[in-house]
Amino acid sequence: MSGVSNPRAVTAAIRGGGLVGLPGQNAAPASAEPASHLPSPHSHFDVCPVWLELSIRHLSDAQVAQAARVETWRDSDESSKTGALEWEFEASIQAISTCGMAIDAFYAVVQTVVRSPQSLIDEWRDKRTPRDVQISEVFRRAFSIESRNVSSLRQTLAEIFRFRDLAIDPSGKMDAQILHPELGVGVEWRFAYFRYENALLIVKATVQLIAALIASGKPKDADLQKYIDTLRSSVESLQNRSVLSGRKQDPYSDPRQG
């Protein structure tokens, strides 16, 4: 996996405790160190903007793959056509999967600051409440979202996770071919679901959702406010990427500049 070009957001994390060390080293409990050496507070590496960056890169690849697929489909053999579908599928499924990771990473930080009541957590577990419902409720509490806006938030999260879940466990899908919306021919279901047009919708929705929470959210917690203030610049720079507008790009250009 290639490196990420955007600056990493570094925020204040929860105080000491736990193990410190690189894999393979004999790590010692931090509590065993003299108090003067405890990391309080220590730096927290925020992976949310990294996953967003990767989703946009894969989206750029999917856009190039779509253009190649259109060209290939005009006058090529069946093997070349299948290869073009595979290329677009692989780029699109990565773009969509990393969107789910970005939401999870953002949520992971928010829920450590704004903890749900144990009674509510128990209820979610007992009722097997969908993940999008749980996350939207935590975001509602954290950012003081008005009730009339919670429904649209939940719908967006549900669609993002629906595609992400298909990427992880597609066992519920039938093996029968379905009609490709652009080609008008029968293809494996994965080629119709994981294609550039759907990846574009999911990536845009993910970036816009996080950007909206950062821009209009009104967190009551001071630490959460510091976190989104730090994250804001990274997300704003990602919003300006031309690939999110759907504009065609030079297939020989560096996707990271899209």
Secondary structure: elements and pairs:
Elements lengths: L9 E3 L6 E2 L7 E2 L13 E3 L2 H27 L3 H36 L4 H10 L3 H13 L3 H22 L9 E2 L6 E2 L1 H5 L2 H21 L5 H18 L19
Antiparallel strand pairs: 1-4, 2-3, 5-6
Helix pairs in contact: 1-2, 1-7, 1-8, 2-4, 2-5, 2-7, 4-5, 5-7, 7-8
Task: Describe this structure as you would to a colleague.
The protein has helices at residues 48-74, 78-113, 118-127, 131-143, 147-168, 189-193, 196-216, 222-239; strands at residues 10-12, 19-20, 28-29, 43-45, 178-179, 186-187. With 258 residues, it is mainly alpha-helical. It has one domain (47-170, 177-244). It has a two-stranded antiparallel ribbon with strand order 1-4. A hairpin with a 6-residue loop joins strand 5 and strand 6. The longest helix has 36 residues, at 78-113. The radius of gyration is 21 Å and the shape is globular. Mean pLDDT is 79; it is low at 1-42 and 250-258.
